[in-house]
Amino acid sequence: MSSTDYIARGLITQTRTELTSSAEGMGAGKVGFSAAATGSGRTVQEKLRESISVKDYGAAGNGTTDDTVAIQNAINAVIGTSGGSLYFPNGTYRITGKLVIPLSYGWRIHGQSMLGARIRQHTTNTRIFSFETVNTWGWEICEMTLEWNSQQTTANTQAIAIFMGSGTASSTGFYDWHIRRVSFAKGFRGIAGDSANSPALWGVHIVDCNCDGSMAGAFYYASPTPSVGQPNVRIEHCRLSCQGMGEEAIKISSGDSVYLANIELLNGGPTHRLMQLSTCFTVTVINCKSENYNVGAAGGRIFGFSNCNVRVFNTNVNGVQGTAGASYFLFGESGTTMSIIGLTATTSMTGGTLLVYTADTAVPLVADIKLNPTGTGRASDDVFPWSGCAPKFDADKRQRDRINDIGDADAALSASSLAIQYQNVTLTANRAITLPSTGLYEGMSFHIVRRATTPGAFTLQVTDPIGANNYTFASATNGYVKYRARSGAWRIIEAGPL
After folding, report:
1. Helix, coil or strand: residue 28
2. Structure confidence by residue, pLDDT tens digits, 269-296
3. pLDDT, tens digit, for every residue of 97-106?
4. pTM score of the predicted model
5. Which of 122, 65, 73 is nearest to 91 (CA)?
6. Mean pLDDT of all residues in the chain?
């Protein structure tokens, strides 16, 4: 063998050793790469480092190996403080502790597919992703499932998939972040700020996510204590199965410019509303749907708004179950103004009435209401804002007249009677209208009007059978009186001549 052969063999052995080495500057670092037709050159190593996987840091993703340390090392190395992109190939990544996100911005954690890349927490009452430093912003988590190995309950308050909190209140908080195509299963809450001393969550965009019916608590919980403003919250195209939830699926307080669109909320029970917004301004609810909510026997409020300014468009409630006689789909509490354009309601309740909406302050605009009652229960045809003012606009005239003309007769009202009772004829004898004594609920109202061309020389008395808070229209006079139920009793809130 010639000396040249020895030299050649030596070079081949050296090259093979270098190409199979993972040391810096070896392996892929010695192989060139050029994009087609560009002529630019760099190494294959540089090209591969454009996409960094948790498997590059030792994560197995086989469902049995504990990947906690490997994933945490990948997060610390890739995200840093100036952004990066960390990839989870399809697989089940077993973790036994929380994954802490450091102070950072401008990064992305993404899986290969929503149901294929699974992070599974094997320690009870433990978070998955934990943000613990405010001013972490401009990030995205997408295309993965976040779940627990065993079912968590409402007592497991730390079983939160994406947790944001620092232990102290802060108006800066966590902002300009996105969560997209993430599925949540078997935990307490999906996305949540710290329930005590929570910083603000704002600049939020959550889209195409789902809960599979096994979550014990809220899908999205942002109710900071003490109160702090949370502007620009956008949740859309989500499907939430709520049958296992022990609290509202969506709870937001102190929000501004809140946009909820194309959200389907399935099932749920009478103890908790599906949605509760408090002290939120410029709220838009569009193309949202509640289906198969069970109000039970005591009644329930499905979408609740307290001290909010709400606009509802093309929203519907379908298949309400239960036997309750006082149930609300859209429930506006104290301080709420709610305008509605497009509302469809059906019900399969075995009894009682679904009052489609109510408001304690004002419903200045109502149009395009369609009610399709089924079964023995019904949706209320009168669609009256029981504790507020009557709708000021009804462009399509679809709503039924909410006034009952009594005529020259006595009347005994029940809880299902229309809210406006109208005496528009001359009385031929003293008459009485008796308010109901059973079936009352907070805010129930009756408006009694006497208005005739010739009132007649007879009295009209409104009788309160509970507290004897009676009112009498004198003979030969027109007038009105408004009653409202509060704490199980009738109160006169307004009265006078016409």
Report:
1. helix
2. 888 899 999 999 899 999 999 999 988 8
3. 999 999 999 9
4. 0.75
5. 65
6. 85
* 309 touches 337 (CB < 8 A): yes
Question: pLDDT tens digits, residue range 235-252?
Answer: 999 999 999 899 999 999
Q: How far is CA 419 from CA 144, 362, 367, 402, in A?
A: 51, 16, 19, 7
**Residue 441: what residue type?**
Y
Residue 431 has a CB neighbour count (10 Å cut-off) of 20
CB burial of residue 469 (10 Å; 0-12, 13-18, 19+): middle
Amino acid, res. 291: E
User: Contact at 8 Å (CB) between 19 and 30?
Assistant: yes
DSSP 274-340: SEEEES-EEEEEES-EEES-B-TTT--EEEEEES-EEEEEEEEEEEEBS--SSEEEEEE-TT-EEEE
Q: Specify the 3-state DSSP secondary structure of 56.
A: helix
For residue 37, the one-letter residue type is A
Q: Which two tokens stand for residue 366?
A: 């109502």
> Which residue, 412, 405, 409, is CA-closest to 428?
409
Give yes or no for residue 114 having a pLDDT over 70: yes
Counting DSSP H helices and E strands in the chain, the numbers are 3, 39
Closest CA to 143 of 179, 109, 182, 178: 182
Q: Which sign does the torsion angle of CA 394, 400, 401, 402 carry?
A: negative
Q: How far is CA 462 from CA 386, 446, 483, 494, in A?
A: 19, 11, 10, 14
